[in-house]
Structures are given as C-alpha cells and as structure tokens.
Amino acid sequence: MTEEWPDRLVLVGAGKMGGAMAAGWLDGGLSPSSLTILEPNPSEDIARLAASRGVALNPADPAPPDVLALAIKPQALDAVAPGIAALAGARTLVLSILAGKTIANLEARLPHARAFVRAMPNTPAAIGRGVTAAWASPEATAGQKRWTARLLGAVGAFHWLDDEAAIDAVTAISGSGPAYVFALTEALAAAAESLGLPAELAMSLARGTVEGAGELMRREAETPPSILRRNVTSPGGTTAAALAVLQGEGGLDALMARAAAAARARAAEMAG
Ligand SMILES: NC(=O)c1ccc[n+]([C@@H]2O[C@H](COP(=O)([O-])OP(=O)(O)OC[C@H]3O[C@@H](n4cnc5c(N)ncnc54)[C@H](OP(=O)(O)O)[C@@H]3O)[C@@H](O)[C@H]2O)c1
After folding, report:
1. Hey, is 135 helix, strand or coil?
2. 18 lines ligand 1 (CB under 6 A)
3. What domains, with CATH codes, occur in the chain?
4. Where do the H-state alpha helices sit in the chain?
5. Which residues lie below 8 Å from residue 261, measured CB to CB, with a gap of 6+?
6. Residues 224-256: pLDDT tens digits?
7. What is the mean pLDDT of the chain?
8. CA–CA separation, 220 and 207 (whole Å)
C-alpha cells in the first residue's frame, strides 16, 4: 500500500458518482481489500465489480475506516446518517460529495468525526474526465489531504479551495457546467436547422464540433482558448461575423455571468 491510499475506505452509496469513483480508485491502484461498499441496491456493474475484484459489499458491522466517503443523494443524508454515525470515528476522514451539504450539516449528523472534506465533482468523472474541487476542514491532517487528492484525482482533475463558500461558485461552473455545454450543443443544432439544414445533420454537426473543439483544447493544453479562437478567426471573415454577435453587448460573456450567478445563488440557497 502506498502512502497516498488509505488502508481502509468505506464508500456509502455506489450510484452514478460513487460507482464511478470506486471504479476509478481500483483502476488507479487502490487495493480491493481496502475498499468496502455500502449500497442497498447495487447495480449489476457494482455487484460484478465487487465479486470480480474481491471488494466487500454490504458486510455486517464494518469498523470505522480511515476514510468514509459519502456519495448518497443529499436528501438521503438524514435517513442514512444514524446508520453510519458509528463508522465515522475520531480518526476517520469524512469525504462528502453531497451537493449543498455543508461541513456543519455533516458534523451535526456524524458527531464523532473531526476531519471533513467537502467536494464537488462533475459527471464526466464517470469516464475519468471529471473536474473536482474540494475544501478540507482545518482538522484534516496533511496525510488525510493527500488521500483526498489521490481519491478525487482518480476520476479527473482535482483542485483545493481556500474556503468552503467557494464550493457554491465551483458548483455554478464545473458542477453544473457540463449541462451548459450540452445546452450550447442543442443551441448550435437549432441554429443549424434555422439555416435550413436537416435535423439529423444539424445535430451531427453540432455534436461533432463541440466534441472536436473540446478535444483540441485538451491536446493544446498550453494554448489559451482565446488564442485557439483567434487562430480560427480571419479578420472580416465568417467566424468574425458570428463572434461580433456572440461577444457583443449582452452577448455570451454577460449571459454566462448571469447564468453562473443564478446557479451560485441557488447553491447557496440549497445549502441553507
Ligand atoms: N451527478 C452529478 O453530476 C453530481 C455532481 C456533483 C455531486 N454529486 C453528488 O453525488 C451524490 C450522488 O449522486 P448520484 O448522481 O451518484 O446519485 P445516485 O446515482 O442516486 O447514487 C446514490 C446512491 O446511494 C444509494 N443509497 C441510498 N440509500 C443508501 C444507504 N442507506 N446506504 C448506502 N447507499 C444508499 C442509492 O441507492 P437507491 O438508488 O436505491 O436509493 C444510490 O445508489 C449526490 O449527493 C450529488 O449531490 C453529483
């Protein structure tokens, strides 16, 4: 066992996010014998993963682990917490990805634990291409923070935050962001149809363009998006004509800022 992986890790909730994280951890080198999954209705994938890799699934009375990872739905926390409170011991790091649940919310329900991490992943974590940002309570040790970086980095890029409130901004950008990109794809396809292209071709052009531009941005990681944009914008050309609209008064920048502000306000409201 390398120092960065916890010796004992219990995952509570192996749905979309929890299941993706468990798969990422095992692929990344976590020893299967270190992992226990608690999931009342395991999917076929989770049952198969547990059986084939030798991961404990729903054992009776697991002991408090080094890391208790919570990936249930936020609204299930009140019902689930009493059953797992004994697992959150004084030396256990509680690692939560529950949207809207603050460290104070978690502390109130898991009173024996002292160290908490609150993280916000996004759905591309399911393909190992997520973006996650997290905040650790001051009680989290350097070793617990290394575990966190290893666990959350196993499903994509990972960033630490300096304060818990920044989680709401992260939720508004990367947490909800994949939906903005899907909406952009829909809008591009609708625009194609309004220019007279058939629906199937319109969607195919829009999807392919977003996928290709995303992949190009990934491969050209050293080149800022503004330069990539300029590289395809000849002065006085077609792209310039469109960008004059998109980046004009009340255009994409203002619209995106308003959308993100609305998402952040909603995240703050939901966190109460
Ligand atoms: N999806 C995202 O983009 C995203 C992004 C950031 C954060 N998150 C957070 O990730 C968390 C999980 O989201 P998700 O989309 O993965 O939800 P999900 O697919 O519904 O997964 C939650 C899992 O927890 C299980 N569960 C319910 N009660 C349990 C219990 N007593 N003990 C153990 N497991 C239990 C659920 O089982 P049942 O289905 O039988 O109830 C389900 O399999 C949420 O808190 C969400 O806020 C999600």
Report:
1. strand
2. yes
3. 9-167 (3.40.50.720), 177-271 (1.10.3730.10)
4. 16-28, 44-53, 77-84, 103-109, 142-153, 166-170, 177-194, 199-219, 225-231, 238-246, 252-271
5. 172
6. 999 999 999 999 999 999 999 999 999 999 999
7. 95
8. 20
For residue 149, give the amino acid letter: A
Per the structure block, which two tokens stand in for 57? 């699934």
Q: Please work out whether the CB of residue 97 comes within 6 Å of at least one atom of ligand 1.
A: yes
191 lines ligand 1 (CB under 6 A): no
Q: 76 alpha carbon to ligand 1 midpoint, in Å?
A: 8
Q: Per-residue DSSP letters for 92-130?
A: PEEEE--TT--HHHHHHHSTT--EEEEEE--GGGGGT-E
Whole-prediction pTM value?
0.91
Q: Is the distance from the beta carbon of residue 11 to the nearest atom of ligand 1 less than 6 Å?
A: no
